[in-house]
Amino acid sequence: MVLTDRVLMGPGPCNPYPEATAAFCRPMLGHLDPEFIAVLDETIDRLRQVWQTANPLTLPVSGTGSAGMEAAFVNTVGPGDVVVIGVNGLFGERMCDVASRCGARVVRVEAAWGTPLDPQALLDAHPSPKLIALVHAETSTGVENDVRSVAEGKRDALVLADCVTSLGGIPVDVDGWGVDIAYSGTQKCLGVSPGLSPFTMNERARQCRVPTPQSWYLDLGMIGDYTSGATRKYHHTAPIAMIFSLHAGLGAVLDEGLEAAWERHRSCGKALQDGLEELGLKLWAAEGHRLPELTTVLVPDGVDDAAVRRSLLAQYGIEIGGGVGEWAGRVWRIGCMGNTARMANVTLLLSALAKILGR
Ligand SMILES: *Cc1c(COP(=O)(O)O)cnc(C)c1O
User: Is CATH 3.90.1150.10 the right assignment for the domain spanning 7-12+258-357?
Assistant: First the structure.
């Protein structure tokens, strides 16, 4: 077997916290074992702390971040429902695809890739939408969208936020901001392997659920049983090892403290962005809206995108990401997420890049 150490500085997965990796070695338990149930309960309690919510309906959905996206839409929108969706990157596009498959009438509010959505444009797009959805941290561009302003101005609409690349990396305050539905992923800033989607929904959204979602597996009316203490019953087999790992990863985040984790992401992102500019590179995401946990930078003219990424991986064991869609070959996406967000990794990447680019 080949064991290779990598510094994972792509758009995800990040390097997990050591505690999260070690937890995979826990002896297996049955999914109805009281000892497992206690770990699941504590995991959900930790999720509420990280989401900053008191929502009873908070759980790790089985599946990656996209399963959380799917769960959010299939449970809240049905045929003919009007859904306003902000689109300024790949994941906003994916939301439109998922909502359309639910039969929703999708009203798109676009902004150019690399720039933020206008919150007022989202609020003004339709007089009475059922739902307004947007991506908090657009991993395809490195741009932060203003979820808070949309949630504060929502009136009767529900607000759905994709927090896959924001939770654990930058402030997310579900109850404080008034976000009704939110989902995340384990492999971005939470510092755990891919495989679960932390999810939360408030009472208002719960009341507005569609009666029979088209997905049996992701029907929150049934998954809800999975998470609710005394009345818990079998729905599907919990991914035990992943839940052990998430439990431990959330423990690491909460031991460090949410504020300290945000500050670590902020300072690493800032050092990385300053360092790239010192190398004469141009950052892509609009200034003032740049995510610390995902930095995008233009590939300089005459430089072979793929060759640079290959050298970083082969010579230094560092993975960074390329652009997607129209931006393939034109930008690099550099993550500083979870346990990867360390100054030593930033320094290593900057010096490796300087060598490879001859700067
Ligand atoms: C990664 C990501 C997703 C999808 O998550 P998967 O774990 O790949 O299914 C959704 N939204 C955003 C913003 C992401 O970065």
Answer: yes
